[in-house]
Write a structure and sequence with these properties.
The structure is a single chain. This protein is an all-alpha fold and 65 residues long. The protein has a single domain (3-58), classed as 434 Repressor (Amino-terminal Domain), CATH 1.10.260. It has four helices and no strands. It has helices at 3-12, 17-24, 29-36, 46-58. Helix 2 (17-24) crosses helix 3. The longest helix is centred in the C-terminal third of the chain and has 13 residues, at 46-58.
Length: 65
Amino acid sequence: MTPVEFKTIRKRLGLNQAELAALLGYGSAVRISEFERATNPVPIPRLVALVMMAMDETGWRPPSE
């Protein structure tokens, strides 16, 4: 999964970086930003990529408050 694909899915899911970080168990949005960075991105772990693709393909959306 590329950084652009990752960011596109995150936006399609209606999540900001902090929300996705919390959902995936990361301490802050910094890690998500690193995944999405166009220059020198941090590699996206395979499991995280699979979770993102599954949420996207199944139409998962965060619960409304």
